[in-house]
Amino acid sequence: MTRLDISDGFDVHDYRSKLKLLRQDAGSMSLENRAELGCPACGTPFDRLFVSDDETVTFDSAPSGPICLARTDERLLVLTH
Ligand SMILES: [Zn+2]
Predict the structure, then answer these.
(1) Is the whole-model pTM more than 0.90?
(2) What percent of the chain has pLDDT over 90?
(3) CA–centroid distance, residue 25 to ligand 1 (Å)
(4) Taking the domains of the chain in order of start, what are their residue ranges?
(5) 50 C-alpha to ligand 1 centroid (Å)
């Protein structure tokens, strides 16, 4: 299993064939895991990945399963399982 590698930041283009873009706005995007990519935090495959360049983020509703957080120098990553 390939694990999402964020040791050198996160660039969606590195995972073009594995992550499907669901939604994108000025500072953030939501992606679907199409390839059983492993979570950078816990190692198990995640369902969705949210990536934000913004300083703050608000979610209107909580996911039903576990979530993991990861960060790079520039971005916050939220992974749902
Ligand atoms: Zn995880």
Answers:
(1) yes
(2) 93
(3) 24
(4) 1-47
(5) 12
